[in-house]
Amino acid sequence: MNMKQIVLETLRRIIERKRVANKSPDHATYLELKSELAEQRDQALRELWKEQKIKSGNTLNDKFIQLEE
To answer: Out of the domains of life, which is the source (predicted)?
Structure first.
């Protein structure tokens, strides 16, 4: 799945969640999209780490991610 497809599917989920909850307006905001995509990214990174496909750690100002080869 490419990034455009991921964004579209995420937008659909956000909007559908709002419709089911009868929230109005039911559009997705940029911040909602950004937050949901970050959650998906973090979940994917956790899964890759558990599968030992990546390793990560802290740097002085950030975190690093390396591929396990």
So the answer is: Bacteria
Q: Mean pLDDT over residues 34-51, rounded?
A: 97
Q: What is the pTM of this model?
A: 0.84
Helix (H) or strand (E) holding 29: none
Q: Which domain holds residue 48?
A: 3-67
Helix extents (H) in the chain: 3-20, 30-50
Q: How many whole angstroms separate alpha carbon 40 and alpha carbon 57?
A: 20
Cβ contact 44:38 at 8 Å: no
Among 24, 3, 29, 1, smallest CA distance to 14 is for 29
- Does 25 sit behind a cis peptide bond, omega within 30 degrees of 0 on the bond before it? yes
